[in-house]
Amino acid sequence: MSDRLIESASQTAGPYVHIGCLPSWAGIDGIYPEDLGATIAGPGARGERITLKGRIFDGAGEPLRDSMVELWQADAAGLYQSPGEYRGAADPDFRGWGRAATDADTGLYRFDTILPGAVRSGGVTHAPHVALWIVARGINLGLHTRAYFAGLPENAADPVLTLPELAGRVDTLLAVRDGGTWTFDIHLQGGRETVFFDV
Amino acid sequence: MDWPYWGDVMSDSGPPPRLSPRDFSVQPAALSPAYRSSRLRAPERKLVALPGQLGDLTGPAFGHDLPGAADHDLIHNFAAAGASALGPRIIVHGTLRDESGRPVPDALIEVWQANAGGRYRHKNDAYLAPLDPNFGGCGRVITGADGSYSFLTVVPGPYPWPNGGNDWRPAHIHFSVFGTAFAQRLITQMYFEGDPHIALCPIVNAIPDKGAIDRLTARLDMGRTVPMDMRAYRFDIVLRGPDATMFENGTGG
After folding, report:
1. A140, B73, B120, B220: which could join B125 in a potential S-S bond, CB 3.0 to 4.6 Å?
2. Do B42 and A188 touch (CB under 8 A)?
3. Helix (H) or strand (E) holding B95
4. What percent of chain B has pLDDT over 70?
5. Which domain holds residue A28?
């Protein structure tokens, strides 16, 4: 075995993360054909189409207008479009990964995707959810959280939502429905601070 | 799908291996008051441990056909025909490995930076130094079978930023790195050997460990220098890796 190495230290993505990760959004055209992560679910993807949107609030209640969010989720059958998926083949028209900037004016991020299926693995069933990863100026190490979907029956037995240490904080992980749009606001600090995970 | 990377630590039909717990002693604290932006953006509560979840041990893959022919060449990928970016020309190269020492092949690395004058091509950057019409400031590469990567650029300039009144960022290149697991996702910054601003920077000093800072500092690599053309800097990157002490599979989800 080779000697154990040490993980490289993280540094903030800074206020100009868009240049590298969403250059077209930043107005830098002509280098890449399009920004990565714009299409999570292709036109033929199976499942219920949804929009997931929200804002990320700092400790003063101001929405972040310079951050970037990445999304990672299973398809409608609960399978990941990943080489590491061992349970079967995910929907070929579903990518499951997305990337969005929070709007420079409103602070809203937005993902057009499909409602994920429950994830059954290792004898455990996780309620439908998406993983989100947040980076920005002032965030030294990217933040991992999960958005679940309020009202789904699977939530009651979800192994994460039922963790004892999440008592009183579960609603910070629940997106709220309005038609086909689910709103998931994230709070970095304060009484409504979102649960962030050490994954 | 073929899955060479995890090799002997993963059976064909089993879930990906768990990752070693993250060593937070070599990572920046969420709250580092000298870096003012962290004061209102650092979570105040402890992270909730959620290891071994399938959703975090999987992640998106990007093919070798993703980067265009010039994506690795920041000297030319935004330049007019026949022109090139201003500034000292360099090759930045290194190897992407995980904590177990294995190279990470087929991984997407995205980079972005200020131009040689310290100015970003971004509407929120109003620094006095001018934009370079031939420099966009972004590039991307996919690591090779041995985890290696390289790209061409110019040395970015240091620049002042509104933090403590007279703070200057050391010259740096931002890196966004994908492994194979969403839990390996990393954004960091590469610094340049010998830059006195490294020791003064509140963002750098959010990292409590001197060795960790040193490992973010690229070294001049004369062996890869192209005579009469460009110098080279070496910057190796390490992502989280499989837990060597733990061979049971993920708990699911």
Report:
1. B120
2. yes
3. strand B89-98
4. 91
5. 17-187
